């Protein structure tokens, strides 16, 4: 991508396989990850950014390896780590609206988003898990390649609003 901060007309595809072996035991686990991201320039300099992310394990993971759902990096309408499971599926779409022209010193803009995700234990299917959904808006600042973002998101199942501060974009 030509612009590391605000990619345009770009696609990212990632796939991974990890094998975890617990020391001094016969326990081992395989994890499979797929990460697909797309960035499309819309009207003017606005960008539609989207992501689909899936990570599955072939067994019940130890507590310290289980992915969590909630927080600025996964589902912005819930506290970080609100839901935990062996497998995780996420999807998100964001409309990014730069308010200033990109400059070496900084960039300011707005983003509007919808997030959805589920975590579920080994032996349960994604189809049988609860998918949590939220939507919201935020503002981002990039100053000398340091990114700051504040997002407010409404959770449709929780009927509440969460505010998150983070660095850079989620994806």
Structural description of this entry:
This protein is mainly β. Helix content is 0%, strand content 57%. It contains no helices and 10 strands. The protein has strands at 10-21, 28-41, 47-57, 68-69, 83-84, 87-98, 106-120, 132-143, 146-155, 160-166. The strands form 2 sheets. It has an 8-stranded antiparallel beta sheet with strand order 1-2-3-6-7-8-9-10, with no helix packed on it. Strands 4-5 form a two-stranded antiparallel sheet. A hairpin with a 5-residue loop joins strand 2 and strand 3 (47-57). It starts with 9 loop residues before the first strand and ends in a 5-residue tail after the last strand. 26% of the residues are buried. The mean pLDDT is 91.
Topology:
Elements: E1 10-21, E2 28-41, E3 47-57, E4 68-69, E5 83-84, E6 87-98, E7 106-120, E8 132-143, E9 146-155, E10 160-166
Antiparallel strand pairs: 1-2, 2-3, 3-6, 4-5, 6-7, 7-8, 8-9, 9-10
Throw out a few tags for this protein.
about 170 residues, mainly beta, eight-stranded antiparallel sheet, about 55% strand, globular
Summarize the entry for a quick read:
With 171 residues, the chain is mainly beta. The protein has strands spanning 10-21, 28-41, 47-57, 68-69, 83-84, 87-98, 106-120, 132-143, 146-155, 160-166.
The class by helix and strand makeup works out as mainly beta
Radius of gyration: 18 Å
- Oligomeric state, counting identical vs distinct chains: single chain
Q: What's the helix-strand series?
A: EEEEEEEEEE
What's the end-to-end separation, in Å?
A: 13 Å
**DSSP strand (E) fraction?**
over 45%
């Amino acid at each position: 991508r030509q612009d590391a901060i605000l990619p345009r007309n770009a696609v990212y595809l990632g796939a991974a396989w990890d094998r975890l072996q617990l020391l001094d035991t016969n326990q081992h686990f395989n994890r499979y990850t797929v990460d697909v991201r797309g960035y499309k320039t819309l009207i003017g300099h606005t960008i539609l950014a989207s992501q689909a992310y899936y990570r599955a394990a072939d067994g019940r993971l130890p507590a310290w390896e289980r992915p969590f759902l909630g927080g600025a990096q996964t589902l912005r309408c819930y506290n970080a780590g609100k839901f935990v499971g062996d497998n995780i599926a996420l999807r998100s779409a964001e409309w990014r609206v730069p308010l200033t022209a990109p400059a070496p010193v900084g960039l300011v803009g707005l983003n509007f988003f919808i997030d959805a995700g589920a975590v579920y234990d080994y032996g349960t299917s994604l189809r049988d898990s609860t998918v949590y959904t939220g939507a919201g808006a935020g503002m981002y600042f990039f100053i000398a390649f340091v990114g700051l973002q504040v997002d407010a998101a409404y959770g449709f199942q929780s009927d509440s609003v969460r505010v998150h501060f983070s660095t850079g974009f989620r994806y």
